[in-house]
Automatic annotation (TrEMBL):
Belongs to the LysR transcriptional regulatory family. Pfam families: HTH_1, LysR_substrate. SUPFAM superfamilies: Periplasmic binding protein-like II (SSF53850), Winged helix' DNA-binding domain (SSF46785). Keywords: DNA-binding, Transcription, Transcription regulation. This is DNA-binding transcriptional LysR family regulator. The lineage of its organism: Bacteria, Bacillati, Bacillota, Clostridia, Eubacteriales.
């Protein structure tokens, strides 16, 4: 049955007001337009919806059945309108972000802290994955946007923009003091016990690509999924760790670790914000990305 929903709207206000003229005033139309709409709806449904009693109009049995459902539907629609209004005005909403543990801990948290101060009713969910995994869950619609190491693997479907440039460095404890205050070439460093993230991470892929370009192959002493554990293992002298520079700021300052200076510069990594092409973002997600763009150094 193909019935214009506008007829149901007129029916709802007429039944609610128990008056054609009052419904006309509410809807800002003429009383005759209301009467014609009700007549049209009755013809389409094949049922009488109203009857007159004294000076009021009342619902028939069929009208009561229809009104019960229309009233519920109308309330659902008004609730949805209110929620959309709240979302557009940042009074409610949700943001789902994909980021690695490292990115979240050392770069994302200051932005989240600032954002929730401005918009306390927006719920933020962070899903921790590697860069390649973040691309996959973005394409599945499980997150609104992600922060990954560039370049992206599927540039046909995924839009990206640069966010930050980061640097990975080698650090060691005084057990390797022979490397302190001097420049070491990467080939020499490869002969020491090295501590690295596993092969599934962008940090590892970056250094492996760099070493391959130099014709150097390495087998790390220890491979882990956590930069924090690499830092702790380096502090007790298990080896020389490749870590994000920001992750050892305190250790370098205190002297519990030192940076092993290289003669060559390891290629810098670029972090990017990724979103799906042709998929509109919510107001909350757009505002969060705007915050990322305008505060390039939140630390």
């Amino acid at each position: 049955m193909d019935i214009n929903f506008e007829l149901y709207k007129i029916f709802y206000h007429t039944a609610k007001a128990k008056s054609f003229s009052a419904a006309a005033d509410t809807l800002h139309v003429s009383q005759s337009a209301v009467s014609q709409s009700i007549k049209s709806l009755e013809e389409k449904l094949g049922s009488k919806l109203f009857f007159r009693k004294n000076r009021e109009i009342k619902l028939t049995a069929e009208g009561e059945i229809l009104f019960k459902h229309i009233e519920q539907a109308y309330n659902f629609i008004k609730t949805a309108e209110h929620k959309i209004y709240q979302t557009q005005n940042m009074e409610r909403g949700e943001i789902r972000i994909g980021a690695s543990d490292t990115v979240c801990k050392y770069f994302l948290i200051p932005y989240i802290e600032k954002f929730i101060k401005n918009y306390p009713n927006i719920k933020i969910q962070v899903i921790n994955r590697t860069s390649s995994q973040i691309e996959e869950i973005l394409k599945k619609g499980l997150i609104d946007f992600g922060i990954v190491t560039l370049p992206v693997q599927d540039s046909n479907k995924i839009h990206h923009e640069e966010f930050l440039t980061v640097k990975d460095i080698f650090v060691a404890s005084d057990k390797f003091s022979m490397l302190k205050n001097q420049e070491t070439d990467i080939k020499t460093l490869a002969s020491y016990p090295l501590l690295m993230l596993d092969r599934g991470t962008s940090t590892r892929r970056n250094i492996d690509s760099y070493l391959s370009s130099k014709g150097i192959g390495i087998v790390p002493e220890i491979e882990l999924e956590s930069i924090d554990l690499l830092v702790e293992f380096a502090k007790i002298g298990l080896g020389i760790a490749l870590v994000l520079k920001e992750s050892v700021a305190d250790e370098l300052k205190k002297g519990t670790l030192f940076e092993v200076k290289l003669k060559e510069d390891i290629t810098l990594r670029k972090l990017g914000i990724i979103t799906m092409k042709n998929v509109p973002l919510s107001r909350a997600s757009s505002e969060f990305i705007k915050l990322l763009r305008t505060h390039s150094n939140p630390m």
